[in-house]
């Protein structure tokens, strides 16, 4: 772990309860080294946006502390705001104004003026492949164009730390890939620190040097994607059952599998059974034999290297509930 002064984001034990009694954050801690891309990965309602809102001074925690770019978010919100760019989950662009007008307005909010601002707007339009679209009202943009403009808006004042809340949700695969390339470029060429949230395992795996898996308002595990996957020794064995298994039967089945099929970390979620084995292929016949004996009918079996999905299962105790790993929500 880097020393504290090398941390662009340092949040400790954040707690946030919304009126109505929802505990959105329940001891959320996250540290991001300057100049790196960090991914907060978690399902709907995990607390990702709430974390981003607190770090970007748009919400206050009930307790806990956070600093961004070296400034305490509670004591120096103005300094934090000048140091950061924010791309919210929901677009903040004015739909009636053109892309270029949006950029100019955003620049003015940060005190940019005159030819310098005009140049910056054109530079960003070009960089995000919006030079022509920039002349048209935002309401006519495709989802990908709109999202690219959102990121451009977050960059107008050349922030040190960029927050991207679900930058690719709802984009088609091509637009998503283009966004990934751009985010990788921002991090690589410009040394920007990026904290992004996502519920796409693949996105976190590809873009982030380190990730934190967030579940129910706290980090359940943190590390590089490879290290997290590497902690899961051996292969993952996945079995799709023909019929869903209730909680009691699931417990009996997993116990039987661990005892008689030589697998570990066996878990069943509805129709999906997962387990780990040093040699996955060798374990399959034994797994099938145990399932047959216990009367569980099998639809399909696969053996794979560990994925982030398996990491999530291991630490959250259930499958990562992203409806589709690749497409739009
Ligand atoms: N303004 C609010 N008032 C009340 N409850 C809220 C508010 N904002 C969020 N919540 C609740 O807090 C919890 C965490 O929400 P949050 O938006 O931080 O999750 P998220 O990880 O960003 O989810 P998503 O992937 O759906 O964007 C959820 O249960 C949500 O319903
Ligand atoms: Mg969110």
Automatic annotation (TrEMBL):
Membrane spanning residue stretches: none
Membrane topology classification: Peripheral membrane protein
Biological process terms in GO annotation: daunorubicin transport; doxorubicin transport; response to antibiotic
One GO molecular-function entry: ATP hydrolysis activity
InterPro entries: AAA+_ATPase, ABC_transporter-like_ATP-bd, ABC_transporter-like_CS, DrrA, DrrA1/2-like_C, P-loop_NTPase
EC number: 7.6.2.2
One GO CC term on file: plasma membrane
Top enzyme category: translocase
Places the protein is found: Cell membrane
A Pfam match: ABC_tran
Highest taxon listed in the record's lineage: Bacteria
Keywords from the named record: Antibiotic resistance, ATP-binding, Cell membrane, Membrane, Nucleotide-binding, Translocase, Transport
Location of the ABC transporter domain: 9-241
Main location as per UniProt: membrane
Family according to the record: Belongs to the ABC transporter superfamily. Drug exporter-1 (DrugE1) (TC 3.A.1.105) family.
Name under which the protein is recorded: ABC-type xenobiotic transporter
Lineage: Bacteria, Bacillati, Actinomycetota, Actinomycetes, Kitasatosporales
């Amino acid at each position: 772990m880097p020393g504290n002064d090398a941390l662009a984001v340092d949040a400790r034990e954040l707690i946030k309860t919304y009126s109505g009694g929802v505990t959105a954050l329940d001891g959320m801690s996250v540290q991001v080294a300057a100049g790196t891309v960090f991914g907060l990965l978690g399902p709907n309602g995990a607390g990702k946006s709430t974390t981003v809102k607190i770090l970007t001074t748009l919400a206050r925690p009930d307790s806990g502390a956070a600093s961004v770019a070296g400034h305490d978010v509670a004591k120096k919100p103005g300094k934090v705001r000048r140091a950061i760019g924010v791309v919210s989950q929901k677009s903040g662009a004015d739909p009636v104004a053109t892309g270029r007008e949006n950029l100019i307005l955003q620049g003015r909010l940060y005190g940019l003026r005159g030819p310098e601002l005009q140049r910056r707007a054109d530079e960003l339009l070009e960089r995000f492949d919006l030079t022509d679209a920039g002349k048209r009202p935002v309401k006519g943009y495709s989802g990908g164009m709109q999202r690219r403009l959102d990121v451009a808006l977050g960059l107008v004042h050349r922030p040190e730390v960029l927050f991207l809340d679900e930058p690719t949700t709802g984009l088609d695969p091509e637009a998503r890939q283009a966004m990934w390339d751009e985010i990788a470029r921002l991090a690589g060429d410009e040394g920007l620190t990026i904290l992004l949230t996502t519920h796409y395992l693949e996105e976190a795996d590809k873009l982030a040097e380190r990730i934190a898996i967030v579940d129910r308002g706290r980090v359940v595990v943190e590390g590089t994607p490879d290290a997290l996957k590497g902690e899961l020794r051996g292969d993952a064995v996945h079995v799709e059952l023909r019929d869903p298994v209730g909680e009691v039967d699931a417990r009996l089945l997993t116990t039987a599998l661990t005892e008689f099929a030589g697998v570990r970390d066996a878990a069943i979620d509805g129709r999906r059974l997962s387990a780990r084995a040093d040699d996955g292929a060798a374990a399959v016949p034994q797994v099938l034999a145990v399932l047959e004996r216990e009367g569980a009918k099998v639809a399909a079996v696969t053996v794979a290297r560990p994925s982030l999905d398996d990491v999530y299962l291991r630490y959250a105790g259930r499958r990562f509930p992203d409806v589709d790993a690749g497409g739009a929500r």
